[in-house]
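Tokens for chain A. Residues wanted.
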């Protein structure tokens, strides 16, 4: 049996613990916070409960596999409810679209809302995206990134032409999407990885394909329950989860890990360390070697991902609110009039930082408004999570989100902008809580509050994301800052990749890899 320490109880760390404990390893999870979940957090107050991170589950088969391979099936411990309307979109010209949650219904809905032929345009795009998915899923999303895998793609002209890695996501979509509203819809998916669609690689076309092919799902009672269920499974398999333990150093014995040290001075020996901490934190703070310093310098050359500015709105009196004219929807997206101006504000003019980042004046607004009686104190109430893309917290070179009054002024402007776009809740707010990128940094230890670690900006960005197996023997990375990327499904896949690399305890005996 190998002793394994997992740093961080985010979904990637918890899924790693469940898998590795089920394989017979002695696993201890150390979480610096007093609660588990990482970015899959929750806030409860006055009868209102908010998810503070992801608001839907995509690629549900990833979680089904996790539970099937570690014990009882997912459906025996947790309900996933499919959304019949995945999202209500309001475009810059005022048109609205209720995007069906079933892919076969999408073309008809597009034609009805946006005009004849738009359904065919999107279907053609999804078909090309499916080809990219078929090529990338196994070797890139479900396997460690390797030079051999990259070479295999490059050696196959047909696959290379389909993936078109030299194109941006926006450029990939332009072949099929003549309607500017469909192009805005595609641009949105770059933000799933914290990226700029003008620079994000064409491979991100797999994101809308996977979301629409497998559907959008919600966990009644809140998505935090998914993290809790994974933690319960890890414990059932024998893992120990300790909260309030701040790991300050990964210990080495020569070229291999030997354990970790905590802020209290405790030293915990381990054959293997799996870190769910941000890669920047691992290289810059937890490892102390020349190799770590080189890795930190290399990592610093990558663009950090965007962050988010969040309003948690406790609402009353929604029964007769005018904006509910189309019925309740779990998700709304109110698109910006100028999407390029939004990305310029976050990443710099043209993505080249010719001037520093700044809060977006008229951003796209994302609203998660679950119709779930378990998260509100009574009928007519709503626990709304409102998010806009935002530049990271960077007082020295960008935005200081701790500047007095900035968060309050920006929050008020967003409520006014929501009203302008047809969702006026200003008279229904019982209370509001604001979370800035600086808050995200404090709560999750993500540098600058960058939600996904690094952005997928540039054709090579996906291949430059920190690998799961690190040069330090016995050290592995999981979570959104490592391969294959951010978002609940991908961080869960990172755990599967690492567990496969480490292998069963009986195969390894007491010798670490």
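Reply:
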């Amino acid at each position: 049996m190998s002793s394994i320490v997992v740093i961080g109880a985010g979904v990637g760390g918890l899924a790693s613990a469940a898998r590795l404990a089920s394989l017979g390893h002695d696993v201890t999870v150390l979480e610096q916070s007093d609660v588990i979940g990482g970015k899959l957090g929750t806030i409860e107050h006055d009868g209102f409960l908010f998810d503070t991170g992801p608001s839907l589950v995509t690629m549900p088969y990833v979680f089904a596999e996790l539970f099937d391979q570690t014990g009882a099936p997912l459906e025996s411990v947790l309900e996933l409810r499919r959304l019949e309307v995945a999202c209500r979109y309001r475009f810059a010209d005022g048109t609205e679209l209720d995007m069906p949650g079933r892919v076969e219904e999408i073309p008809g809905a597009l034609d009805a809302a946006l005009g004849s032929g738009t359904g065919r345009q999107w279907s053609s795009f999804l078909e090309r995206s499916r080809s990219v998915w078929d090529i990338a899923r196994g070797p890139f999303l479900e396997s460690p990134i390797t030079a051999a895998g990259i070479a295999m793609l490059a050696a196959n002209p047909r696959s290379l032409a389909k993936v078109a890695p030299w194109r941006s996501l926006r450029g990939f979509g332009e072949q099929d999407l003549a309607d500017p509203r469909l192009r805005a819809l595609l641009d949105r998916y770059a933000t799933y990885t914290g990226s700029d669609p003008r620079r994000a690689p064409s491979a991100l076309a797999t994101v809308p394909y996977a979301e629409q092919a497998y559907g959008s799902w919600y966990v009644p009672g809140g998505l935090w329950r998914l993290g809790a269920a994974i933690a319960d499974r890890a414990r059932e398999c024998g893992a120990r989860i300790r909260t309030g333990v701040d790991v300050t150093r990964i210990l080495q014995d020569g070229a291999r890990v030997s354990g970790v040290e905590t802020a209290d001075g405790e030293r915990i020996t381990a054959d293997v360390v799996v870190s769910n901490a941000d890669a920047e934190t691992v290289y810059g703070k937890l490892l102390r070697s020349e190799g770590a310093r080189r890795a930190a310098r290399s990592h610093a050359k990558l663009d950090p991902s965007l962050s988010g500015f969040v309003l948690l709105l406790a609402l009353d009196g929604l029964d007769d609110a005018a904006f509910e004219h189309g019925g309740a929807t779990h998700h709304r997206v109110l698109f910006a009039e100028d999407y390029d101006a939004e990305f310029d504000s976050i990443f710099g003019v043209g993505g080249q930082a010719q001037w520093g980042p700044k809060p977006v004046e008229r951003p796209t607004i994302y609203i998660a408004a679950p119709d779930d009686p378990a998260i509100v104190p009574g009928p007519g109430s709503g626990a709304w999570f409102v998010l806009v893309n935002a530049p990271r917290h960077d007082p020295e070179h960008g935005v200081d989100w701790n500047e007095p009054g900035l968060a309050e002024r920006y929050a008020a402007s967003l409520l006014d902008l929501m009203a302008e776009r047809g969702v006026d809740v200003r008279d229904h707010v019982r209370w509001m809580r604001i979370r800035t990128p600086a808050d995200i940094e404090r709560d999750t230890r993500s540098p600058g509050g960058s939600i996904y670690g690094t952005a997928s900006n540039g054709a090579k960005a996906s291949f430059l994301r920190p690998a799961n197996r690190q040069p330090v023997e016995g050290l592995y990375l999981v979570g959104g800052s490592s391969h294959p990327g951010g978002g609940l499904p991908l961080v869960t896949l990172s755990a599967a990749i690492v567990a496969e690399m480490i292998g069963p305890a009986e195969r390894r005996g007491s010798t670490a890899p």
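The chain has a mean pLDDT of 91. The CA atoms of residues 153 and 159 lie 6 Å apart.
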